[in-house]
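User: Need the bound-state model for NAP:
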Amino acid sequence: MILVTGATGSIGRPLVAELHRRGAAFRSLVRDPARAKLPGAVAAGDFDDPASLDRALDGVTRVFLCSPGAVPAPGPQPMIAQQGAVIEAAVRAGVRRIVKVSVQGARAGGLLAEGAHAVLEERLRVAGPEWVLLRPSGFMQNFRTGTGAFSADGDLVGAYGDGRIAYIDAADIAACAVPPLLESGYAGETFVLTGPEALSHTEIAAQLTAATGRAVRYRDLPAAEFAETLVAQGLPAPFAADVAALFAEVAKGGLATVTDTVERLTGRPATTFRAFLARERALG
Ligand SMILES: NC(=O)c1ccc[n+]([C@@H]2O[C@H](COP(=O)([O-])OP(=O)(O)OC[C@H]3O[C@@H](n4cnc5c(N)ncnc54)[C@H](OP(=O)(O)O)[C@@H]3O)[C@@H](O)[C@H]2O)c1
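Assistant: Bound-state model below.
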């Protein structure tokens, strides 16, 4: 029996659909079963309620571990306590394998999600159950809602310079989680998952323009000025500074790596941004 956490999220929904299609034995951890609208069994539970995790993990042998990304909260990122609680409950329940979504560039002392995932990766390595780490690049889904990617006038704004990112379709991450969840092998492996091409944000804006028929430009700002725009949008200054610093790392080529891991794990090429936009009906 597999427990899927983050089941209503960008990765979780296509993962649950695929596990259901394959007839796998799984249940989804959801906060609100009535609103989840997922195929297959669901267990009501909350990362912040350990007793609910114990109930959801009853009889579970493998866990897909995924929770929300970095948030502008004071103190340590909430994902550390939340995923930490799932790892502890999984150990109590005798779970044999945990497949965790991390992030490309996870490293001790890294900014925002990069540092938080590094803490969790280390906890997982010593927890006891077998572990498999998926380290995806930025998600193409970030461009669907516009959250954090578009300015009020619809342009893309950032501090990426000409730095490229090999954005990945979250559905490809889900597809990569399936083999380590259903098969043996993969224990102790770390997979860096990217899209098939590294694009600059000027190129992304051009593809958005072609797909939507609406002129989208990319406006590049110096990192400090970009941080000021985030503060003006209401984000706390330390969080804005960290986001701007992350973007500045991208400008230096920090996320430009392209891997063939999606194809190796799934047997089909990773989704291009163009194909993603077509599938999403040009973000309509
Ligand atoms: N976005 C990126 O570019 C990017 C890049 C690399 C790595 N990542 C990593 O990917 C992960 C996020 O994946 P995603 O985009 O698929 O997630 P997502 O779409 O943000 O979904 C988050 C999921 O967590 C659930 N959840 C939230 N709070 C919960 C709680 N207290 N108890 C139980 N469940 C809770 C949500 O369920 P509800 O329906 O109840 O809200 C939802 O299913 C993060 O770890 C992030 O660091 C993201």
